[in-house]
Amino acid sequence: MTRKLILSSPLLEITISRLCQELIENQIQGTETVILGLQPRGIYFAERIAAELGKQLNTSFPVGRLDATFFRDDYRRRDTIAPNSTDISFLIENKRVILVDDVLATGRMVRAALDAMNSFGRPAKVELCVLIDRIYNRDLPINADYVGKSVNTLPTEKVLVEWKEQGHEADKIWLITQ
């Protein structure tokens, strides 16, 4: 198994700042916008996006945590199921939802998240923001509106995101070859 560093600080902070600029350019100020982080690691990225937007716009955005485990099309096929909690303390009905995840791979988790979101209302618009887009790995026709970095990967490779909030020494994103 080999590990190749894809992204780390300070380039990670620059990438997050750039993504926030793109969100601002697309009229985030004039709409009611909420941010939903996908469990488990998308929540850390969502909190970083919300903090950076708050700093740049001098306002705050509601941030929620969405677990789509039971909406996945493969959850019954797994030996172990480890669901996380969903915490959305606001309405998403008729709001612009920025769905945030760390890695976009097959698109199946995003599809499951869209299904899970329906339990909380019908948003006016949903946009997808990902830190890493594993291109050439899609099973479903799902693409991100905002991408931190696109990475060409093989099916035998994996992208691992380590956040300080998870107890890691530093934020690092690795490409792991099996």
UniProtKB/TrEMBL annotation:
UniProt EC number: 2.4.2.9
- Which regions form coiled coils? none
Any Pfam family from its record, for instance, is Pribosyltran
Q: Does the keyword Transcription regulation apply?
A: no
InterPro entries in alphabetical order: PRTase-like (IPR029057), PRTase_dom (IPR000836), PyrR_bifunctional (IPR050137)
Residue ranges of the Phosphoribosyltransferase domain? 6-161
Protein name (record): Bifunctional pyr operon transcriptional regulator/uracil phosphoribosyltransferase PyrR
User: Which species is this record about?
Assistant: Aquirufa regiilacus
- The coding gene here is pyrR
